[in-house]
Amino acid sequence: MDITQALPLLGGISPQQFMKRYWQKKPLLVRQALPQFTPLLSRSELMALAADEDMASRLVVQQPGKNPGWQLKHGPFQRKALPPFKQAGWTILLQGVDLHDESVHQLMNQFRFVPDARLDDVMISYATDGGGVGPHVDSYDVFLLQAHGRRLWRIGRQKKPVLQDGVPLRILNNFVPEQEFVLEPGDMLYLPPGYAHDGIAQGECMTYSIGFRIPKKAELARELLQRVAEQAEDELGEVLYRDASQPAVAQAAEIPAAMLAFAHQAVEDALKDPLALARGLGEYMTEPKPQVWFEALPQEDEVELAGCAVQLDRRTRMMFDQQHIFINGESFLAAGRDAELMRLLANQKSLSAKELQKLSKQAQKLLAAWAVAGWLHLI
Ligand code: SIN
Ligand code: CO
């Protein structure tokens, strides 16, 4: 992607300018980010997805005059389990639609000026008149693309968010909107994390949220330390703690200082491999989402790469760093021309037949194995 090229998607500024001025900093409203946009999925296609076991979906129903005034249910939902379309004030939210639909996946790809490691998913919401999830704050960045109908967005910086008690949703009690906009199909609003917002459907409405993944420090520490420890298991072997010089103790409950020193050494040794953390990070970031499964080819299917181009399956996560190629939770050391071509595959999600020819026999074998696993497809 040419990151210096001005895009209608970003209101006539380039990805480079957008990242510098707005990303994680302030909201941006873009009128006609996608001119003449029409929904990629019809209402009935969305309702069919809501019934799908593999789809994470939520139904939020406003209950005026009742306490609590909101009801939240988790899917899957058969059509008859949903309120009638004539009933105002309900919304259904479908998470990860990009994994199920190629056109939604392609829409998400337009936002790949942000690293794949940050891009999360496309959530689609369908709402009847007045529907929404109430004023709230998200901890992630989001592009809110209006796909069908109109939605009123009220937004504001929220200094000290206070949540409503006794409701099943995270709804702000003290929301103070500072700006409001009505979005029409093709309009888009970018919000940085922590910016309070409330979207109210004006008539039947569909909104696509391009959402981002924000790793938490604690989550990374937990994940990576565990992975590093597992990787180091062979290296550290069965080394046992020895305490031949342990004197007799009067305070038996006290942990020996020597044991703490042994523990320090164990962690240090596990981290000794300079690539261990990078490997763990890449494997973690490319781990497929829990609901993802690939359609593997029967093992005996001979995959013949010659003359073919390849394309990554839309569910495949492929990334790289200076030393590695990562794909769906696995890591490979790569250098030279193979590394260059594998990086190309990760960036453009495909390789032409000509590019494929330039891979070493060993790398071609790997690609064939990925094709058998359903991680990529021959075209
Ligand atoms: C919605 O589409 O109704 C909610 C999106 C959001 O507020 O993040
Ligand atoms: Co939100």
UniProtKB/TrEMBL annotation:
InterPro entries: JmjC_dom, NO66-like, ROXA-like_wH
Record-linked Pfam families: JmjC_2 (PF08007), WHD_ROXA (PF20514)
Any coiled-coil regions, as ranges: none
Cofactors (names): Fe(2+)
Protein name: Cupin
Boundaries of every JmjC domain copy: 103-229
Organism classification: Bacteria, Pseudomonadati, Pseudomonadota, Betaproteobacteria, Burkholderiales
Keyword Transmembrane helix: no
Record-linked SUPFAM superfamilies: Clavaminate synthase-like
Alphabetically ordered keywords of this record: Dioxygenase, Iron, Metal-binding, Oxidoreductase
Gene3D superfamilies in the record: 50S ribosomal protein L16 arginine hydroxylase, Chain A, Domain 2 (3.40.366.30), Cupin (2.60.120.650)
One Gene Ontology molecular-function label: metal ion binding
Species, as recorded: Rhodoferax fermentans
